[in-house]
Amino acid sequence: MSDIHRQRAPAEAPRLLPGLGGLHRRIALLLARQAQARMYVGLALVCVLLAVPIPTYAQTSPEGGVVLADADVPASSILHTGTVVPAGNVSHTSRTIPAEQVIPRASDDLQWEGEVAIYKGDHLFEYINGGAPQYLEYGFIEVASQELIWNGHTYIFDVYRMSTSLNAFGIFSVRRPAVAPLIGRFLYSSLTTYQGLIAHGPYLIEIAAYESTEETPAEMAELADLAAARLDPSLAIYLLTTKPPFTCLPLAGRHPGTEKLARGPVGLRAALGSAVGGVFFGATEAVQVALAKAEILRREQAEQTKPASPAGRTSKESGPAPTWVVCGYHPRADAEGILRPETILALLVRPKDPVPLMRSVGAAIATGSRVDAMEADRGWIWTEAAPGQSHGAALQRGADLIFISSKLPEEDFRAWVADLVSP
User: Are 286 and 363 spatial neighbours (Cβ–Cβ below 8 Å)?
Assistant: First the structure.
């Protein structure tokens, strides 16, 4: 379930959970969020996937993006070795279906309890309290939630329909645990004791178990298969992290499987997590504030040049959402032998006007720890005064802005940053 406890609106979702009190459900869902598996397979999978040849199922759109062809795509394309779409913005000629229709159908082996609860647009606040803003940043359209009984075990099956496959991956990327095994054959998935997450085309599927058993991983995979069978196979675009905007990230030292996508301040904070703070946090927050002010100014200017609507209401249309890509670098094994990054890099992809953004960063970090200006006005590099002596940088690289926080030794970090900004 969501990181924020969900609340159903009685008028829109009157059904209650049979045989379980609210306390029981809260405990189960809390365990779902806290339990994490100790298995990491992403690195090996990415290495295998990068060797997969690119099929010819795509064509370039007039806008320069990619449109999936109407030709039939083999069913095998929804497996780990799935359809690869060339670089570009992704759109679809394939038909998507309402979130409700993705839920596995009731049968002799699968029972539905109650009716499907559906929440669209801003009504998401009626289902997940403070969790809604994060989903809305990623182009949320609707969610359908249904209680299922499969092999005698009870699950909550939620299907979130997002505006694009990239946005569905984005919300998945900031919600998945740092280390978790996959669910069955699904590349963009994660499994913990009580919870499963799957990004499949423009859908985020979330499965929550009331109780965890030995059968839970296999049963979640079976339920996910039943849902995927209801979708056009060409929607399952994999290897997204080998295409833009992720190709804006430098390859040297990257920790595969740690790529995240953020489309707003809530998503960015979730993508960065608690591992970064201090001057780095101040720099990224300054950019977020500057972007918000620029969006307010854009709306005001748009209203001045646009006729009023018949109802006299003002327009709330937003401009293009900022795109942040976040990734870990320089992985080292921790005490349990799990590779974890020592460096976090957050890259703002091609902002419309980077100059005032960099000015806001300079003002925010001026009172921080030891801050040195880089040559040719490329940005700043600093060393935190706090214990642990982390290092950081804010710089412009081409049309992108890059923010870095690292635990590397200072000499190694400065050498890496110098290579990063070299032409």
Answer: yes
The continuous run of DSSP H or E covering 298 comes out as helix 278-305
Q: In what order do the strands lie in the sheet with 379-383?
A: 260-262, 324-333, 339-348, 400-406, 391-397, 379-383, 370-373
**Is residue 13 a contact partner of residue 117, using CB atoms and an 8 Å limit?**
yes
pLDDT tens by residue, 347-383: 999 998 899 999 999 999 876 668 888 887 889 999 8
CA separation for the pair 150, 407 (Å, rounded): 46
Token pair in block for residue 149: 């009984």
- DSSP letters spanning 239-279: -GGGSTTGGGS--TTB-TT--EEESSHHHHHHHHTTS--HH
What is the amino acid identity at position 106? Answer: A
Token pair for 75: 């069913």
The helices-and-strands tally (H runs, E runs) of the chain is 10, 16
Residue in 384, 406, 381 with CA at minimum distance from that of residue 393: 381
Domain ranges of the chain: 22-34+90-228, 246-305+320-421
